[in-house]
Amino acid sequence: MPDHEFGFELRVCAWVERNWEPRRPDSDVLVARQLGSYGRRWDTVVVEADPDGLRERGAFGERELDSDLLPVVRHAPADWEWYRDALPEPDYPWRYVRQAVHRAAGRDLIEKRRNGSRIQIRRTNAYPEWVRRIVAIENKPDLSASAADALADQLERDVALSLADEVWVATEATDERVEPVLLERLPVEAGVLAFDSPDSATVAWHPATLAPDEAGTNIGDREEAACEFSVVSPAEKRAKRRQLAERAYGRGWRTYYETMRPDCRQFALRRAGADYVPYCAAKNCEQSAAACSAGCDAFEPEPPTWRTKGWPIEGGPGTRIKEVLDEQRGRRRPTPRR
Q1: How far is CA 169 from the centre of its chain?
Q2: pTM of the predicted protein model
Q3: Which residues lie closer than 8 Å to 238 by C-beta, 6 or more apart?
Q4: Residue 124 in 3-state DSSP?
Q5: pLDDT at residue 338 is higher than 80
Q6: Helix intervals (H) in the chain
Q7: % pLDDT > 90, the chain
Q8: What is the pLDDT of residues 31-40, one digit of tens each?
Q9: Is 261 left (phi over 0), alpha (psi -120 to 50) or beta?
Q10: Which of left, alpha, beta for 325 (phi over 0: left; psi -120 to 50: alpha)?
Q11: Is the CATH code 1.20.1050 the one for domain 5-50+130-250?
Q12: 3-class secondary structure, 193
């Protein structure tokens, strides 16, 4: 296992993608990383999806639908209608909705036309309710006492809000009879996955099923004697879950190259278990996302001839690495029905 959390996180994502057992056996599983809401960012997010609904979602393309596009696509009518009559009343000016209508039409998500001075819309496909469950995983390979205290606070917020159906902690297994993570002050509702290799993990503690369909409590800033909190309605939670699922659908977990430098001639992919992780040939190690930047003292751009003459493949090795990771991500999405 690598000595940084980033490498461990990629291995957890790869293991979950291959081995996760959804609540309903016929569910499809999508995996993403670094997603969240309400001031929290989860390391790994698992979306258990209805297979038919997921195929219908594919009709809207591979890109995610953001929080502005989702209301337009979901509420677009079957027949032509003025967009203000068709869409729900927003809590922001209508001009922003109009901009979202134009963006949606530009991506062929809906159809639009002008009828006099009014913009009318109709749907191209009905947006499905394709999400069954959402699971959040926090990755902590080395759970020290201070890290456990911070993690306990984060998990308590997750449990109180109950935006996800389950919350887990993934950590490295030890030789102890009882895993040390089980002795920490973590919420009993959180499950624990113990990894002894990239291809092997065991459930050290089963999670409780939370209540995403009920109102939740968003815990804000804490002080010694008090804390701020607000109640989040079931409708708001459903909207946030759709947004999370859309981001997971569009991004997956292999988009780490977007914050790294695959255009460096020292950047490579190396097999770890059944998947691949980034590797730095110059430093002979698995680099973290923070270390792999233009500020790295070993950064060496690909020669221009690699990109202009198609050596050894069109666009240079860096471009091909992106394509390989994108192809792997694309294979996790089913083909939409025509």
Answers
A1: 16
A2: 0.89
A3: 213
A4: coil
A5: no
A6: 5-19, 51-57, 69-75, 83-86, 94-106, 145-161, 234-251, 304-308, 317-330
A7: 60
A8: 999 998 988 9
A9: beta
A10: alpha
A11: no
A12: strand
| Burial of 332 from C-beta contacts in 10 A (0-12 / 13-18 / 19+) | middle
List the domain boundaries for the chain. Answer: 5-50+130-250, 66-123, 255-330
Q: Are 331 and 17 in contact (CB under 8 A)?
A: no
How far, in Å, CA of 158 to CA of 36, rounded? 10
CA distance 113 to 132: 35
The two three-digit tokens of residue 6, written as one number? 């980033």
DSSP assignment of 40-109: EEEEEEEEEE-HHHHHHHGGG-SSPP-TTHHHHHHH--SS-EEHHHHSPPPSS-HHHHHHHHHHHHHTTS
- Partners of 36 in the beta sheet? 41
Beta bridge partners of 270: 277
Please write the tens of the pLDDT for every residue from 26-60.
999 999 999 989 889 999 999 999 999 999 999 99
The answer to whether 219 and 156 are in contact (CB under 8 A) is yes
Residues, the chain: 338
pLDDT in tens, 242-257: 999 999 999 999 988 8
Q: Is the dihedral of CA 25, 166, 9, 252 positive or negative?
A: positive
Q: CA-to-CA distance for 310 and 102, rounded, in angstroms?
A: 38
What lies within 8 Å, CB to CB, of 276 at 6+ separation is 269, 270, 324, 325
